[in-house]
Amino acid sequence: MREPTREFEHGYTCNQVVELATDYVEHALPPQLVEPFEMHLNFCDGCFTFVEQIRTTAELGGRLTEEQIPEETKAQLLAAFREWQQR
Amino acid sequence: MTDAPVEERQQLDADEAALVARLRAGDERAFDDVVTRFYPSMLSVARGYVRSRSVAEEVVQEAWLGVLNGLDRFEGRSSLRTWVLRIVANTAQTRGVREARVVSISSLRSESEEPAVEPQRFRGEGDPFPGHWWSYPTDWRTLPESKLLSQETLDVVKNAIDELPEMQRTVITMRDVAGCDSDEVCQTLEIGEGNQRLLLHRARARVRTVLERHLDA
Is A47 part of the contact surface with chain B (CB cutoff 8 Å)? Predict the structure, then answer.
């Protein structure tokens, strides 16, 4: 692993960068902070990897199978729907 | 969806208006479609308010009755799903003081103080590079896909989400699992954009930490 250099900082330390990771991936970082943030990522493999891991975490969440509606529940709701139609 | 081009947004509005019209006319296939599609996000919203899974299911059923009763008055000012999820949240809240919960400022504050990464991972004040990593996280892109996307890994993610505090679990489930956008989450849970992002950040950070332990092992 490379030793960190002063170049890494660009106004941020790594423990600050990790707290802004979600704002960054959500495109919610204030515009004036985007450049120093990305500059830090360019120089810091650790923080670059961390941001990628946050993205991967979100993607893996998207691969989870959502809970399916139980057939019994669906049947009950359909019955309620029919009843509602009879009003 | 807020970023969708105007034409796409209008098309979505038109599709949705057609869907609402079919529901009002008693089209059972439309009902089946909507119930099936909305159920997962409805359940995740309900579970943000009530502790037990079975009560959450009851909330969802009760909310559907509210949806049917209100359908004639739905004006399309929000998407159908957002409107439905709002009804779920309201239904859950009125289940009573013991079961229901609201986002308290104190719960948000305690969550905001929790660091995304354990402080021991970073160099301390006496170090020439305070606040920098001691050792970098590992690059998951170098892992074989068969490991990263294995059922075992997905189970780790699912369990980590289940263990989260309620509001974090609700937000990450709505956003990452059910694919809701941030506006939908804010409107449903009646929280601001900043709090929504904070809850999402805490949730993803905790799940990431659990994943790291699993994948680095």
Answer: yes
